Amino acid sequence: MSRTRTPVVTGWFGGEGDDFRLLGTRCSACAAVFFPREDVLCRDPACPGGELTEVPLSRRGRVWSYSDSRYRPPPPYVSDPELVWSPYALAAVELEAEGIVVLGQTVPGVTVADLAVGMEMEVVPGVLNEDTETVWTTWHWRPTGVTA
Ligand SMILES: [Zn+2]
């Protein structure tokens, strides 16, 4: 039986392989870009307010900060309490063109020991969790040059 691949959040990312992108929105009045996407009102209080349209974000950015998660987060984080917790690394990656920082888990196997501020990262499709019917998809940050 094949399981369905379902985004863990609808509308925040899309595309496959090299076309995979995070999806933000841009204000037509002040050109600010938002991620997570803002679809109602521009968040800049000084902006008269423009139309918010979806924009794919840059695929690459640079590590602004990073940390690791050494404990099991409480629900709604999904994890099997029967399994040993394995820490994962979190990277805050600055997208220069958009002027924003986007947080995300790194690809499996990349730990804080592999990260440094300023390192170039690229966004890739990832899996947050799997059950018998569904593969819940998300985005991961991967150091550029790492292909595994
Ligand atoms: Zn605006």
Automatic annotation (TrEMBL):
<dbReference type="InterPro" id="IPR052513">
    <property type="entry name" value="Thioester_dehydratase-like"/>
</dbReference>
<dbReference type="InterPro" id="IPR002878">
    <property type="entry name" value="ChsH2_C"/>
</dbReference>
<dbReference type="InterPro" id="IPR022002">
    <property type="entry name" value="ChsH2_Znr"/>
</dbReference>
<dbReference type="Pfam" id="PF12172">
    <property type="entry name" value="zf-ChsH2"/>
</dbReference>
<feature type="domain" description="ChsH2 rubredoxin-like zinc ribbon">
    <location>
        <begin position="18"/>
        <end position="52"/>
    </location>
</feature>
<protein>
    <submittedName>
        <fullName>Benzoylsuccinyl-CoA thiolase</fullName>
    </submittedName>
</protein>
<dbReference type="Pfam" id="PF01796">
    <property type="entry name" value="OB_ChsH2_C"/>
</dbReference>
<dbReference type="InterPro" id="IPR012340">
    <property type="entry name" value="NA-bd_OB-fold"/>
</dbReference>
<feature type="domain" description="ChsH2 C-terminal OB-fold">
    <location>
        <begin position="54"/>
        <end position="124"/>
    </location>
</feature>
